[in-house]
Amino acid sequence: MQELITVEDVTKKYGNKTALGNANLKIEQGEFVALVGMSGSGKTTLLRMIAGLEQPTSGQIRQAGQVVDSINTNARVMFQDDRLLPWLSVRENLTFGEHSKKDITEADSLLNLVGLDEYADVYPEKLSGGQKQRVALARALMSHPKLLLLDEPLGALDALTRLNMQDLILQICRKRNFTTLLVTHDINEAVRMANRIIVVKNSMIVRQVENPYQGQDSVDAEAKQTGIVNDILHTIYEKD
Amino acid sequence: MKKKNSVRKIFILGLVVLGVLVAFFGWKQTQDSTSKSLKKVIIGYQAGDEFDISKTRGEFVKKMKKAGYSVTFKEFQNGAAMMQALANGNIDYGRMGDSAPITSIAAGTKVTYVAAGGTKALGSGVVVKKDSGINSISDLKGKTIAYTKGTTSQYMIIKVLKKAGLTTSDVNLVNLDQSAASVAYAKGKVDAWANWDPAIAQAEVTENSKLLINGNQSKAYNRSVIVATTSFAKNNKSVTKAIIKYSNQDMQWANTHHKKLIAMMVKSLKLNKKVVTKMVNRRTYSMHAMTKARVAEFQEIADVFYENKIISKKVSVAKYTQYVK
Amino acid sequence: MEETKSKNKINSILMQLLPWTIPVALIILWQIAVDVGWITSSFIPSPLSVLANGVSLWKSGELPKNISISLYRALVGFAIGGGLGFILGFLNGVSKVMRALFDTTIQMLRNIPHLALIPVVILVLGIGETAKISLVAIGCLFPMYINTYHGITSVDPHLIEMGKSYGLSKYKLFSKVIFPGALPTILMGVRYALGVMWTTLIVAETVSADSGIGYMSTNAQQFMNMKTIFLCIIIYAILGKLSDFIAKTLENILLDWR
């Protein structure tokens, strides 16, 4: 497997406060990695640095050998809030107003993929929260990015919609072979979707857990997944 | 929804295009059609004055054009605004009352008297309501009188009070501009009003008023003058000569064609015909170069203003006068 | 069903007419008051005589001429002032250096009443069309500046971050994210500037004007020609309402996503 992301001795400080300390992480092509931890543990900071939205105080992040030192346009972020542009139609939100045939065809096929083809011409205002996040997902997939960064994209959704979205994302990522990094505080979600789970605690990467049961929903696999969840929970709540 | 929007779009577009077209039409009208080879002369005037007659009659501009000058008239609401424009060189000549230049000269503005016209003596003075119980100027004692600061009405007040043996402290003076004074007088907020035609004629006709004392009696004649910026006057004697000559021709026409003049002024001033008739009939129009007698007349205004501390500097009118002969 | 539908229709028509009931009632009351003699008609002419005055001024060509000249001054002044205000607001909105350079100065100038500027404008620009148009432009500049600046600086920073992260070019970021995000506030500025445009024009047209609605009004004031004064007031009201209507409809069209 080829290595796509390398995080090397990365520290991020805001003033005196350390948001992330001495992090090391490798993500290989085609992997689905989840970052879990309590809020404020530093997991979102790491994702934002990989996206190039923030710069490390020390250390280095590389994508396919190239140092990420400004906005990383080879990665696409799906944010917690949908961040759709309310003045553009759903389709235009994907193309950013481009009218080239190629863009429109791709946008329409992605909208079809997330099951929203009939909403292509309406404004986001008319959509439900789950539908909006599906548009945001389709937007992130435009022109097939090398890396997908999902920053708690399902955090604001109700439980049922959430489960549907998890399936949809996982299905798309596997089918189209995306490399994905998911930040979430929901450990069940992480264990359901990721093949590897990274635990962040008190601004440090404390543990990495391989998950061979990714995406499986047999009774047996679910029991195994629950075991991993409990194991991770134990790590998170363990006294230092 | 979409359809409604596009109908709206077309409607708004039509409205905006219409607006722009009308504005373009307006722009066309602000463009002067006068040719460029002529020397440009800009004259400031006030509604109903000598130049307004010339402007409306049209002969003046034609004659000036023949003499090689392209005349542009600019209307002003009062003498003060006109003095400001003169001081900045935005206009070359201005027609105003005899007192306004004095205050400006005292304030350091470099202007020169180049011509003097007829007076409004019979149509200037202090008006009171017929039923006010004020029958002579000595009855003004303790009354409220409206005037406008810096204009001939201020001079008029001083002269009238002096004639009655009163001073400014014996009466209650209120400084109001023309339109405010007009309302205040009509509503009875002030007892008397120092002013001139057409306001006086209008008060007499529509407000049951009488002229308590006119300009000939008070010796505040309220004469029309033409002033120019000092530097312009020095270098353009021939322009001044032409203006005086052609203006005076219009004034002679005005004196002999009252009927036409009244009709003309009713239209341009939008005043009642009775008012205009009264005003025109008690007025003699003329326009002449400055003379020693005129200088003496204006010098007295300057002296009175100085004595009454209206201006803080002595002004020698002769120094600011040009005799074109 | 049918009945309630038609009832609703009548209701909506009534609701649309409702804003006009007070002006219309006032005008009728005014006409009656003059006719019956409650108020003296030399100071307050009746609406009908004002209208008649308007018709005769229209026939003489004076009213069309003055309206068109006023409209010309207003529109050109608005275009220059509004345009400049927009450009300055935009530059200061996106560039910190420009903001540091200009903002304090503009905020200082903003609080000067337009009337106080007349002598300065006459001194610098004279008394021609330039001076009048400049006054209108100055009046329109500030509301446009403030609203553009405020609109641009208050665009949701999350959306800007998203745009940057999605690799949008500077131009695209502006045209697809910042400008549409600022547009509601900018259009509010347009509406406000249109209002200021008319009020400044009245003042501007008292500066040695020999044409325009403002001139007509001040000239009439000098001779207490109340019919014309009222006519001018009504024309201003109509022009103001009309431009507000255009701005409002423009908002509805441009901001149909709301």
Automatic annotation (TrEMBL), chain A:
Residues 5-227 form the ABC transporter domain. It holds the Pfam family ABC_tran. It comes from the Bacteria. CDD domains: ABC_NrtD_SsuB_transporters. One of its GO terms (molecular function) is ATP binding. SUPFAM superfamilies: P-loop containing nucleoside triphosphate hydrolases. Keywords: ATP-binding, Nucleotide-binding, Transport. This is ABC transporter ATP-binding protein. It comes from Ligilactobacillus ubinensis. The lineage of its organism: Bacteria, Bacillati, Bacillota, Bacilli, Lactobacillales.
From TrEMBL, chain B:
It holds the Pfam family NMT1. GO terms for cellular component: membrane; periplasmic space. Its main location: periplasm. GO terms for molecular function: ATPase-coupled transmembrane transporter activity. It comes from the Bacteria. It is found in: Periplasm. Keywords: Signal, Transport. Signal peptide: none annotated. Residues 40-257 form the Solute-binding protein family 3/N-terminal domain. Part of a binding-protein-dependent transport system for aliphatic sulfonates. Putative binding protein. PANTHER family: ALIPHATIC SULFONATES-BINDING PROTEIN-RELATED. Belongs to the bacterial solute-binding protein SsuA/TauA family. This is Putative aliphatic sulfonates-binding protein. It comes from Ligilactobacillus ubinensis. The lineage of its organism: Bacteria, Bacillati, Bacillota, Bacilli, Lactobacillales.
TrEMBL record, chain C:
It is found in: Cell membrane. Residues 63-247 form the ABC transmembrane type-1 domain. CDD domains: TM_PBP2. It holds the Pfam family BPD_transp_1. GO terms for cellular component: plasma membrane. InterPro entries: MetI-like (IPR000515), MetI-like_sf (IPR035906). It is a multi-pass membrane protein. Its main location: membrane. Signal peptide: none annotated. GO terms for biological process: alkanesulfonate transmembrane transport. The keyword Cell membrane applies. The chain crosses the membrane at residues 12-32, 38-58, 70-91, 111-128, 177-203, 223-239. Keywords: Cell membrane, Membrane, Transmembrane, Transmembrane helix, Transport. It comes from the Bacteria. The keyword Transmembrane helix applies. PROSITE patterns: ABC_TM1 (PS50928). SUPFAM superfamilies: MetI-like (SSF161098). Belongs to the binding-protein-dependent transport system permease family. This is ABC transporter permease subunit. It comes from Ligilactobacillus ubinensis.
